[in-house]
Amino acid sequence: MSSGEAGQSAWALRLCDADAGAIELTNEFTVGRDAGCTLVLSEPHVSRRHAAFLIKDGKLYLQDTGSANGTFVNDNRINVVVLKAGDIVRFDAARYEVVQVDAVSESPTETGGHKPADAGTRSGPKAGSAKFDPVKAAEVSEGVVTFERNARVSKPEPAPTPPSAPTASLMVSGGAVVGLRFPLGEGLSRIGRDPACEIRLDARAVSSLHAEVECVDGRWHLRDCDSSNGVLHNGRKITEVELVDGDQLTLGDVELIFSFKS
Question: Using an 8 Å Cβ cutoff, are 31 and 50 in contact?
Answer without folding.
Answer: yes
